[in-house]
């Protein structure tokens, strides 16, 4: 899609948001809504701030991830009023607003003050954002009912949002290919991360989340957060979970690569890849997302038996006895949008057999989800199973061989369409 087409879709996106927000505001009994962009808090005992990426509803409208101390006023029947903080500052550069068509849909002002501008709203005004930024601002702060209604406006993505998510996938896959090559060339986790950033043209602070880059046993720590600067003597595996922000929208992609000579681990990756693609094929309107999660556990059980990790225990027993949860302890995925774990995924609590599942809804057209099965060798989870009643059915030599590889995760970003699904990650060459 060309940039011209994308910008045209953004104007339609703003029009759709105006309708959705006006409906939510009226339904909750308000006459106006003031949205704070937020600001990075200063670290305790320091004069440096944390990294800043913006408050979700502000990004939903503007995509301006680095715009601190700014405000957006939504009033039924009026153009949105966007007040941008532009200080006179010789210490820092002030972000320049792009000259794009969507701005014609708003009244745009600049201010050199961090405080909220004076709002001309007759009636009830709701104000949403980080409470630390709302002190002294007139209006009702973060009303729970309205916050839930605003979250719901983000569940069904507009064509513009899907186009941004697709672009974020395309850029991220360039990074994943560079990361894989660096690993196979003998690079360290730190060097792999640099290769990813170089290929995506994105600094770590701009990324939607801290990239997970685990080599060998580090791949078994689900949110592994460090980068070794020295490569291991024997590189056996790479798990990289990394995304990109594009105009505020996130990609979230995971790939696993075997090292040279790791035939058993490579076969497990291939098996999980096949399972993952079957799970992606389940995505469609009317499908319970929890059903995809449960199908994952059935697939993991079958894979454990097929790979000779377990012997003499049927798939159903492995699931019922919680064995598969030792190998696959997290949920199958989540909503994706201007947040990596996007909002409004759990209208109901997750079931007892899926306590970490972040999405429990029935799928509908316009939703965007991740599908990310995993299979890990995590000692703290697996060792109690090995010491339990089914321990005798495990092939210890196979498990010992796999321990040094850590684990596998394969993750795609998938749009629910009217008649099925669209896999944005595979479209991007993933």
UniProtKB/TrEMBL annotation:
Q: Which residues form the Xaa-Pro dipeptidase N-terminal domain?
A: 11-150
EC numbers: 3.4.13.9
| Cofactor(s), by name | Mn(2+)
Q: Which domain of life is it from?
A: Bacteria
| Protein task | Splits dipeptides with a prolyl residue in the C-terminal position.
User: Which positions bind Mn(2+) 2?
Assistant: 241, 252, 411
- Record: residues binding Mn(2+) 1: 252, 334, 372, 411
Q: Where is the Peptidase M24 domain?
A: 164-417
Q: Where are the transmembrane segments?
A: none
SUPFAM superfamilies according to UniProt: Creatinase/aminopeptidase
Any matching Pfam family: Peptidase_M24
Family (UniProt): Belongs to the peptidase M24B family. Bacterial-type prolidase subfamily.
**Cofactor binding description:** Binds 2 manganese ions per subunit.
Instruction: State the signal peptide span.
Output: none
Record keyword rRNA-binding present: no
Q: What is this protein called?
A: Xaa-Pro dipeptidase
Does the UniProt entry include the keyword Cytoplasm?
A: no
Reactions catalysed according to its record: Xaa-L-Pro dipeptide + H2O = an L-alpha-amino acid + L-proline
Q: Which InterPro entries match?
A: Creatin/AminoP/Spt16_N, Creatinase/aminopeptidase-like, PepQ_N, Pept_M24, Peptidase_M24B_aminopep-P_CS, X-Pro_dipept-like, X_Pro_dipept
Q: Which UniProt keywords are given for this protein, alphabetically ordered?
A: Dipeptidase, Hydrolase, Manganese, Metal-binding, Metalloprotease, Protease
Which EC main class describes this enzyme?
hydrolase
